[in-house]
Structures
1.
Amino acid sequence: GKNLGEVVAFTRDANGHVTELHADIGGFLGIGESRVRLTPSQFKLEKDQVVVNMTAEQAKTLPKVAK
């Protein structure tokens, strides 16, 4: 039920299926945040939100991607 960050991109394959999601998490006002990668098995779409079943600490251990 908490906001962990902001989705910045979806990567899709040639068939249009989502292969990964990139999100900026942590930090304050854009300072100190990390961009992480999630696979489709790690999130689900509910209405207008992306929902992950992990804590903020677990989210910090996700693979990092370059901004």
2.
Amino acid sequence: MKTKLSEVLYIQKPILSAPMGGAAGPELVAAVCNAGGFGVIPLWGKPVDQVHHGIDRLRALTSRNFAVNLNLSFPYQDQLDACIEQQVFAVSLFWGMEPAAIKTAKAGGLIVMVSVGSAEEARIAADAGADIIVAQGWEAGGHVWGQVATMALVPAVVDAVDVPVIAAGGIADGRGLAAALMLGASGVWIGTRFLASTEATIHETYQRSVLEASEDQTGWYRDLYDVGWPDAPHRTLSNSTSRIWESAGSPTAGVRPDEDGAIGHRPTGEPVMRYQSYTPLPGTTGNVEAMSLWAGQGVSLVRKTMPAAQIVDEIYQEAIAVMSQRQQDLFDR
């Protein structure tokens, strides 16, 4: 399965693992890369020495290309400089549209991927030199930049730019990959499905909640889990926190139920507040069910924990089978 994306990223399978906050560590990213896909590791917000360490750890696990994910709404220049110094293959820029960041990364010799929520943003990014556009649909889990559904967004972005487009949001199996390719995308960006990988660095309660959730058990919130990251809409699993907040009339910060209450602690011992933007890691204690459990609307397609490499292969093989069968069905008619 060759696409334009395969030529830019030098990959065999047009499947990318989303950065997913704390859930995607070096082991998960390396497994995806070694399986012929492309992994993206989130290193934004970390001190420069930790950025260097994260890159080194990943390179010890794979000789294949990968991207470092940087959040443009937080200080990023030092982290971007570290990526250039380390000559990582690519950077993934999200939560902001800054042509200057794109140009700096390009000047540093990096492939640049930019996440967008509209065709106009895609045009701006491409004009600034972006090599790849990630079109993130509203169905996506975690922090969601735009408000257009994947089905409508992807073809609009494909028509707007001349660079490879990656479809993101609600895609969790081979049928989603096949559909994205039919819409003109060159690959897919998958997060929620990899939450059920054996390499995902999330708490067992979080992973179990993902495996048991139906497609209607996520919610998009403009300002629910905003402690530590304000003004950043997001999609998570519905839980006790979202229910008590909605029952109270979805109040704003300052008057939310149990707003000052710690519902648990990080593995480091730091408290986790009820409305905090936090990915529950292994070793997190307390009421994990009430924390921000990021997940997209494709969650109902996630029913089994598997190694990341097996997930990549299953999605790839299913997409080939689906496209072959549909073609055969059309000819049989």
3.
Amino acid sequence: MNIFFGEEASAQLSILTNSYDKFFLLTDENVYEIYSSMIASLLPEKEINKIILPSGEQSKNIENVVLIWDKLIESKAGRDSLLINFGGGTISDIGGFAASCYKRGIDFVNIPTTLLAMVDASIGGKNAINFKNYKNQIGLFSEPKSIIINPEFLKTLNKRDIYSGMAEIMKYAFIADESLMDLDIDNYLDFIKEAATIKDEIVNMDMKETGLRKILNFGHTIGHALESYYMERDNCLTHGEAVALGIYASLYLSKKYCGLDDNWIMFYDFWFRGVYDYITLSDLDVEKVFSYLSYDKKNKGGKPKFVLISAPEKPQIDVEVRDEDIKDAILLLRGLL
């Protein structure tokens, strides 16, 4: 996969301008408000057709996919058109999905503007939308032509958005590179390239998630269930916050099923409380959250499969966990904050 950073990223976008007949830019209202002048300068000599969606995870639905297709058809977009997904993970997910289905696939480029998208969501070719409040239920694998990463965009993010991305970097620390555990709010910029490279290397070895790529789901099984549960409520969790909680639950299960040393749970507890002390889960319904696991894409034979670790950098895939232990892990989270 072609990932470009910093000045190299800007040069790559200029190269792309000579390869396509029409350009479409997909973004959301918040990003457009902040970066409208930059958007206008992305392709100064070309006409850019803009598609602007409402902000937030709730926009990742089939209605907005139809809206994108309508815009492409109205503007007579052909196979020689390029869709530029400019925003966070919601935009790269829905944009990649819409582009990959339109006329059996047109090229798209991801320009992530959030930390989470830079280290995870924009990389890997997974494109999906939510359906009936279930996370990423409809989707496909299709790689972007390029991923253009410029950390300058992160200067406009609030701390909650930064914390959301930090959870995914910590995931890489547990499954692939222990050195990333030095991560904190003051040094997260130093870890972006390493985290993005880790994901890219794993995806290149297992694009369709038949084996190795499964380790990227560490923290996501319960994390996605929590995210789906809170989509129905006013106090939504961001994807990264849900993953941070999912990692905590996975470490608890890793001790029980894989012999993970207690010290790693203590380490993560200290790190987690230092970052996510603003999250409240007092209204968490254990049975309801558990029910969302039956829709998890990784299920086999109707049973959720977990990624756990026996030690940092030693992930174990397809671990079957007893229902009562899953519920205990969710209950642990309710008492955490």
